[in-house]
Amino acid sequence: MKNEEVGQLIKEYKETGEPLLTLLHKIQNLIPHNHLPAEVLKKVSRELKIPVSSLYSTASFYSMFSLKPRGKHIIRVCSSPPCKLEEYDSLIEAIGEKLNLSIGETTCDGQFTLEEQSCLGLCSLASVMMVDNDIYKNVTVTQLPEILDTYVEE
After folding, report:
1. Which residues does the annotation say bind [2Fe-2S] cluster (predicted)?
2. Residue 86: beta bridge partners?
3. What is the pTM assigned to this prediction?
């Protein structure tokens, strides 16, 4: 864990008064395996005098946060009704075959985690998926290998 960097982000938060969600996102992006470990939430709780239970409540409510370790790249496939009607099932199956992965799992090499997202807010562009912060619209199974290959490290 990058303790000094987390401390710096907390200091900046105190100075700027940015939203707590922004702080938690910045911290999660710093932590290897894209999650919010218990010791980090306890540090934030102590430094900001926010009950740790409130931090856990926030982190567990929003699907973009994780309390457990994840892969370097997070694949989120939208499961809203418009996306379900388009390519959702095919995309999940194709990702599973390509990466040997099911929803909620991380690849053995720690590169990818597959998550279902209840809505990515782009219903008119279904099917939609995200890899990290990159959004892909009107995704088809034939596009999937090329998309995922851009994230594979040699």
Report:
1. 78, 83, 119, 123
2. none
3. 0.81
